[in-house]
Amino acid sequence: MFKVVWDKDINGVLLTTNGNGDALNVSPRPVFHEELSLLGFDRKWNWEYPEANNPLLWALDRRYYYKGELVAEVKGGNIFDDPIIEITEAGKELKIEPINIQKVVEKNKKLLFLLEQEAIEFIEQTYRTYSLKKIRSKAKANEEVDWALLAEMHEKNTKIKHAVVKQDSDSFDIMPIDLAKENNKTIYLNTKIEQFIVSFSGGKDSQVTLDLVSRVIPPDDFMVIYSDTGMEIPPSIEIFKLTKGIYTKQYPELKFHLSKNHQSIFDNWNEFGAPSRLHRWCCTVAKTAPLYKLLKEINGSGKQPNVLVFEGE
User: Fold this and answer.
1) Torsion angles phi and psi, residue 153, rounded to 5
2) Which of 36, 136, 166, 250 is deepest in the core (most CB within 10 A)?
3) What pLDDT does residue 189 have?
């Protein structure tokens, strides 16, 4: 498990495997000049900062840090009322220099590599466990038994969870999943996953997720879905279109889809009221329902397919 500590020298963060008292409980997010200007740090508190592409400081929830020091905290605020901003002694008339991301990456290079490999191994293991495509295609080509179907039949008869396993001779067999784990067998679950999906929002987490998945899963065996709730900021949709162009040029078989409610978001607001942290109808109405509808259309059978979704958090 990796932890994060402040790198005060370069106003950065450092990954560490040492979970001592200096480790942060929440992963910090980078803060850019648009956010500071929206909150009025330059006008109300005389903060000086450039309109740079690089981030300027870090935030833990709604607490802002510069070079590891708490400089401000934002409380309250909603669509009608401004938030309350509390400035610390270290944050008075702050002069901010952009963060050198290249230095941050370089100082974290070794642990970032390990983190990347762990993620790739997880994706590969997940795909191998739930994908029966290769097993069924091999059985059909060689006119062999459908091992996945056989595992399903044994489960129904014995009421014990079975798995398709790979033997040392590169052939397949079935056995109870607990026994397979005890014998360190490569397991392929017979769960009928009909589609692998990368959920894409345009943010940094989904960008990383798409990059990692595209290195592991064949482009014709997963798809990318962007959920347009009707409340997305324009740059998010622009990033989706740009990313689609880049990836489809490299992987022509990779499909990108946009999920969107047939109703206007203004009609939803009139019906349900403004969404909030407590009144969270927007995910169900503007994301989940349109996504289910889209998956049925893609599946073509009119039935809800079984899918496995890779999401960045």
Assistant:
1) -65, -40
2) 36
3) 57
Q: What does the pLDDT read at residue 143?
A: 45
Q: What type of residue sits at position 67?
A: K
Residue 120 lies in a domain: no
Q: State which residues of the chain have pLDDT below 70.
A: 1, 19, 132-156, 166-172, 186-192, 313
CB atoms within 10 A of CB 275: 19
* CA–CA distance, 214 with 219 (Å, rounded to integer): 7
Q: How many domains does the chain have?
A: 3
112: which residues sit within 8 A by CB, 6+ positions away? 15, 105
The pLDDT of residue 147 is: 58
Q: Are residues 259 and 201 in the same domain?
A: yes
Phi/psi zone of residue 38: left (φ > 0), alpha (ψ -120 to 50 degrees), beta? alpha
Q: Which residues of 125-144 are buried (b: 16+ CB within 10 A; e: fewer)?
A: ebbbbbbbeebeeebeeeee
> Tokens 């607001």 — which residue?
269
Residue 29 maps to a domain: yes
End-to-end CA distance of the chain: 16
Helix (H), strand (E) counts: the chain = 12, 14
In a domain, 242, yes or no: yes
Q: Are residues 206 and 269 in the same domain?
A: yes
Q: Are 188 and 166 in contact (CB under 8 A)?
A: yes
User: Domain residues for 185?
Assistant: 132-189
pLDDT of residue 132: 60
